[in-house]
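User: I'm putting together a small comparison set for a docking exercise, and I want a reference complex before I start. The sequence is below, and the ligand is magnesium ion. Could you produce the 3D structure with the ligand included, as C-alpha cells?
Assistant: Of course. I'll restate your input first, then give the C-alpha cells for the complex.
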Amino acid sequence: MFTKILIANRGEIACRVAATAKRLGVKTVAVYSDADAQAKHVAVCDEAVHIGGSAPKDSYLRWERIIDAAKATGAQAIHPGYGFLSENEDFAKACADAGLVFIGPPASAINAMGLKAESKRLMEQAQVPLVPGYHGADQDPALLQREADRIGYPVLIKASAGGGGKGMRAVDKAEDFAAALDSCKREAINSFGDDAVLVEKYVQRPRHIEIQVFGDTHGNCVYLFERDCSVQRRHQKVLEEAPAPGMTPELRARMGEAAVAAAKAVNYVGAGTVEFIVEQPGGYDAPEQMKFYFMEMNTRLQVEHPVTEAITGLDLVEWQLRVASGEPLPLKQEDLRIHGHAIEARICAENPDNNFLPATGALNVYALPDCVTFERGAVRVDSGVRQGDAISPFYDSMVAKLIVHGDTREQALARLDEALAQTHIVGLATNVQFLRRVARTDAFASAKLDTALIPREQAVLFHQEPVGLPLAAAAAVAQALLNERASEGVDPFSRRDGFHTHGVVQRRFEFEFGGEHAKALLTYERGGGLHLKVGEGDAAVAGPLVFGAAPQGAIELQFAGQRARAAVYAQGEVDHVFTPLGATQITAIDLLAHSGESAAEGGRLTAPMPGKVVSFAVKAGDAVTKGQPLAVMEAMKMEHTIAAPADGVVQELLYAPGDQVAEGAELLKLVAAEKA
Ligand code: ADP
Ligand code: ADP
Ligand code: MG
C-alpha cells in the first residue's frame, strides 16, 4: 500500500478519497486553485499545493503542475477522482513517465473506451450487445443521413467524444436530420474539440442501468452488480439506486458477464462502469422482456459509486488503492452479495424552476440530515463544502450527495424523504425540494422507471408551493417570539401589564409571501394563550397558535389544523422556512422600521407595536421636515426611531418618556405643512 497519495480533484470526491486514505493510514496531498484556497478538500488533506488560477484549465487540468506537486511532496500515486483528468490518457501516461502510479486503468484502456464510436466497434467484436446504429469513421453527412434512414426514426446523434450529457440530439424524422447533425457537430467541436458523431436508434422509454466492474493486475475481473440511473434531466443523472428495481438474477448475471467481457476486452484494471441502455418492450412490469445494449464505459470511479458501496458493504476507493498498489481484488465474484437497497440524490446548486440554471453564492445555512435518527450507515452524506463556503461559478454545481440505505426500497425511499426534509440550505438555490418531489412521485415510488420520468411528471415537479401562507406566517411569528424570549429571558409582553387594560394585547405583523402582501394579527389572550389571524376578510385563517422549541433550533408548531416541525432561518428580512411538507420563504416587514410611512396614514403618528416611549426629539410647536426623527420607542430590546412622514408642525405630545404604549396608540399630533 502507498504511504502518500495526491488527489488531483476538488469538492466532494476529493474529500471522499481523502476519507478512505485516512482510514487506511495513507497520507494525502490536496491540490487547489485560487478559488479553492479555503476549500474543504484542502482542509481534510494532510498537505496542499496551490496549482493555479480558478478556471479548471489554469489549475485542475494542468497536469504538469499536478505531477510536479506529487513529486515535490513525495506522493507515490495520483487519484484523479471523476471529471477533470480522470479519463485523460495523456495524463495517465505522464504519471507513469514520472514514476507515479495513476490510480485508474491503463492508458490503453482509457484510450480504447474514450471515444463512444470506437469503443462500440470494439464491443461489437467482444460480442457485447449494441444499440442498432452506425459508428463508422466515415462522417459524410449524406452517408449519416442514409444510415439514420436505415436505422429508422427516432434516432439519436451523439458526439463520439461526448460526455456529461452534452453533444446529443434526438431526431424524430428524416427532414430534421441535417439540421440536428449540424447543431450536434457545433456543440461537439466547442465542448470536446472533436466533431465526429455516431447515430443510433433512439430507444423509447429506456432505463439506464450500469454495471460496476473491477479489475486487478492479476487478470481478475468482477462485477459489483448494477445501478439504475434512469431518473435524469437533460441526460444527466439525478437519482441513482442499487439494485435496479425489477432486476432478475438471470438478467443481472447476463449484464454483469457482458460488462466483465467489455472490461476484459480492454484489459481493464481498477474501477470502471459499463453503461447500458435498457429497452422495456413489455412495459414496467415485465422485466423478463428487458433488452440491454452497451452505451459506453466510464473508465473511472463514478459519481454514484456510494450506492454500490451501501449494498455491498465495500469501500470502492479502498479497492482502487489496493489494486493500484498491485494487490489482487479482495473478493471473488461468488463472495459478493447484495444487502438491501440504496438510493443516492445529487444535491446541486441550481434552480429547477428556472431550467436548472446553476446558482452561485454563499452557503449561509448548510444543515445536513440528522444521521443519528437512523441506524448507523443508513444515511450518508458525501459533501465537498461546509457552512459558510461559497459556491463559485468555476466548477460543477454538485455540492453534495445524499445516500440512504434500507432493508427494502420502501425503507430506503422513506429515509431519503426524511433526509431531504432535514437538508436545509440557505443562501442559494438548490434542487433539494425538487429531489423530494421526484422521489415522492407515484412513478418513482412504484419504480415505473425510464429516462423520461422527470419530463413526464413535470406538472407536479416544478413551480410547487407546498407550504401555504398560514403555515409560513405562523412559523415566522413563532420564530420571532422565540427570539424575543431568548433575548429577554421571558416573553416581554407577559411583563408589560399596562397592555392588558382591555384584557388583551394585539400585535400586527406584515409579510411578503409569494409576491403578495399579507397581514397577520397576533392576540395575547388573557389566559396566556396566543391566537393568530393570517390574512384578511374571507381568506383569513385564524386559530390558536401553539409552539415550542424542538431540537436543533426547530419549532414544533400547531396552527389552523396544521401540525409541523419547522426550522426558520432569518437572512435579513427573509425567513427561510423548512417543514416536512417542503420549504418556502416569507419576508417579515419590519413595521417599526417602516413606521414613518405607515404611521403617516390618516395624519396620525401611531405606535406600530406595543412598547415603551424612550424620548421625544421634538416639543409642541416645533416645525419639522419630512424624515426628521420625532420620537424613539423601545420594543423587543431594540430602539426604533419614529420619523416625520411629511413636513409640518408638532401640535401636541400625547405621552411622556417612559410611558408604555399599546399598538396603535397615537404618540403625537403633527399638523402637515399645507394645513398649518
Ligand atoms: P457519472 O460519473 O455518474 O457518469 P457524470 O456523467 O455527471 O457522472 O460525470 C461525472 C463528472 O465528470 C461530472 O462532473 C461531469 O461534469 C464530468 N464529465 C463527465 N464526462 C465529461 C467530459 N467528457 N468532459 C468533461 N467533463 C465530463
Ligand atoms: P454521456 O457520455 O453524456 O453519459 P451516454 O451515451 O452515456 O452519454 O448517454 C447518456 C444518457 O442519454 C443515457 O443515460 C440515456 O438517458 C440517454 N441515451 C443514450 N443513448 C440513448 C439511446 N440510444 N436511446 C435513448 N436514450 C439514450
Ligand atoms: Mg454516460
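The CA atoms of residues 212 and 410 lie 23 Å apart. The radius of gyration is 31 Å.
User: Thanks, that's exactly what I needed.
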